[in-house]
Fold adenosine deaminase.
Amino acid sequence: MQTKKDLVVAIFDLLKSLRSQGLVYTEIRFAPQLHTQKNLTQEGAVRVCTAGLEKFYKWQDEQQDNSYPLHANLILCLMRLPNREHENSLTVRLAAKYDQYHVVEIDLAGPEGPIPNRAFSPFFKDAKALHIPFVIHAGEAAGPDSMQEALDLGTKRIGHGIRCLESNKMVKYLVDHNMTVSNTNLPK
């Protein structure tokens, strides 16, 4: 998805599909820095995705059915990849700039192993200063210690977090502090 058209179609079609399933709220997470290979800038990618949301809302308003309306927001992902400091910093600034345009949070995504959460501390300090909430993917490839590191950085939400089950102390903390852990792969 490297063109304006591709991004608008992807957002619009995804939202139509989610609405048809009866969802009433969703957050679409994407990394603007990964959509810049064909002359889009990060900001251009964010603008195009917000335009896709607006196109969906217009379409939804025109529907004459009894479906509940779907509301959607965007989460901009920082990438846990080497040599992405400039791109990640720009993503944080874009989240602040577009906070009135359906951008509600930033996320740290990508493989946990090679680069620890604490390496991204400057971005989370900037996010806090700009009043941008953030979620950190932790506790999937790395264990409960990576979740503790994410909590120490100030996250209020953890992506994945499956390995919290390896630590009763972590599970208790998450429950006692009403922490959100977004995971669809808990064992039965």
